[in-house]
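Protocol step 4 of 5: obtain the predicted structure for the target chain.
Materials: sequence only (see below). No template structures provided, no constraints applied. The aim of this step is simply to have a reference model before the mutagenesis design in step 5. Sequence pasted as it appears in the construct record:
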Amino acid sequence: MRSMTLLLVLLTAASAHADEESDRRRAISDAERLVQDIASALSGLAGSSGDSGIGRAASNANRLESSLRDLDRVKGNDSKAREMVSRWPRYCDQVEAAGRPLRTLKQGQHDLKSLDDDCARQLRDLQQTIKAELGKGGPQSERTITERARSIGRQVKSALDKAGNQQRELERARSDARRFDASGGPWSNVRSNIHDAADRMYDGWKRDYENGKRACGDLARGEGHPEVARALDTLRQAERQRADLKKRAQEGLRAVVSASGGLEGARDAGPIGRLRSALGDVQERVKALDRVKGGDPEARAITEAWPRAAAGFTQRLKALETLKGHQRSLDGVAEGCGTTEKSLLAQATAAADRPEAKTQAALVAAAQAAGAEAKKTLEGARKRGDEVKRARGEAAGAGGPGDWQAAGSALKASADKMADEFGRAATAVETRCGPLAQGDRHPGVARALQSITAVLERVDNLFKALGTDVNTLAGHLKGAGGARDAAPVEAARGTLKTIRGRLAELERDDDPRAQTRSKAWLGGLGSLDGALKGLETIKTRQGELDAPTKACEAENATLERAAGDVKVLPDLVALEAKATAAAKTASGGLAAGDTLDAALRKAQGEARGFGYSDGPWSGVQSALQGSADAAYGAFKAAHGRHQKACGDLALGPRHPIVLKTRKALETRSATAEAAMKAARDRATSACARLPDIVSKRDQRARALQTILDGVLKRGKLDTRPETIKVLRDSVDQLGAELVTAGKACEAAMAANAEADTAWEALQGR
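Step 4 output (structure tokens):
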């Protein structure tokens, strides 16, 4: 019994020990999981939008303390459980202690996020105020900028002071959070997440704080801000500059007034350039004053009125420069026209003393050239006069306020004097260059030309009669190409003889111009005789091929008729003999035609060799060449007809008519030969059956005779009557077939004989 009891006790103790071990392992697992939950709750705290992770960590720490109390009851002798129960409750207290500084850091993490943007906005507002007040200027602008800078400075300084206090608070919070020193096992993650969150939240705030100090530092200085200081200094300097610039502008305008008078006496535009420079100084000073005028009424009046007055004065200066450019531009022009006119009149006197066509032409050319140049000079002077008139009006424009009126009056006086000086020179140019501009109608030149023309007309009249003769000569030659004979050439020779006689008389004239001209014409006529001879040769020989051509055409007609009579081969032989006989004559005629063509082509070249075309002789040259070409062209046409008519004859048996006739006869012979062969084949075929029919009929007749012989010998019929009837009918049928085949054979033989006869007839047999 005692043994049983002891066994039960041991079994109970073993069971209890097993339950305790299971509870310990579960408690250890729960505690480790809760530490992991604490680490997870604190992970990413710096980047989260709130501080809920801190609350979850504290809640899990409380649950961990409860779990540790459960572990303490079942820890037994387990070293790990004893370690956890001994140390981890203190870690839970540290988690709760770290939560307070972490909340402080989380709540202040983004307090300065917009500080730099706010200061940038305040800076833009201050800069707009500065820009607006600098545009106004004056003491009020200085007060406005100062007050606005102080107001913004107070606001910004307050924000920076507040941020400085917050920095100390957050630095303590970070230091407190980093006191969490639990480590080992899962607590290492908790420690790492707490330290990381504290550092990142503080560093983010510190970065915003540093950015804000950089953006807001100067603003906190109030009126000590660099831009404010510069603006205030600019406003104070502007006040001093306004007074100085107003004074300098007035001095510059007085310099413009002083430089505006007496400009007409200068030799060049240098004084005007200096006046323009002085005007530029005034404009620059007004521009400078405009930048700092502020609310100064006098400065505003200057900057509003003077630029318009200066712009008008600048336009008047441009007009004055135009006047200065034209003022003395005509100096010496009138004298130049006078010199040219004197030279031209001297040339006119010399030409009148020696009246020749070339001197007359030279005088006309010189007068026209001088006239063109004078017209160009007058046109240029008149154009300049229009420009001077327009510039004078522009230079007399309105003045402006104050001393601008005095400057304008001085400028107008100079402009009037420049225009008057130009006007005097322009009048002199009109007086001296006007007559010269008439060209060859200048009175002195016109008289000289009239004198020269009177002298030259006598020689011209002599040559007019010659011109009529030359035109008559051209008329004879113009129609020579189409004439029936060489009569126009003979007429031309008669007229040429008359022309030469008159030229010989002119050559003996006392007037050297008549001698020179007649010698030139006589020298140019040297090739005319040869040209007339060439034309005459063409005209006299151009019809030499007419008779040979007609003879060849007649011979061709004879061959055509003979070809129509060719019926058999001997007729063709006779036709070829005629063609051969005609070929000899035709070949000789063709050679003669080619020889004649060469001769007339040479004659055409001679006729075209007349190359003199001076004056009316161009008509003679044209008529002569045209007639030579026309006459040779007519010959070429006749030569072409001759070659066409005699060319085929020269071929002899190869004459197209002979070849055509041969081909037709050969075609008929081939047709007859084919018909003969066909008739022979038909006769052979038609007569070929006769021996077979005869053989079959004789065989059946012998069989029938044998039967009949037997009856006669034996007196009785050994064969059936039907067989005898069949044999008899067969013999009769074969006899009828033999008659029909014989008739067909006879007809075919007759047709064969006719075909043979027809073919032999074509062969001339």
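Step 4 remarks: The radius of gyration is 73 Å. The CA atoms of residues 506 and 514 lie 6 Å apart.
Proceed to step 5.
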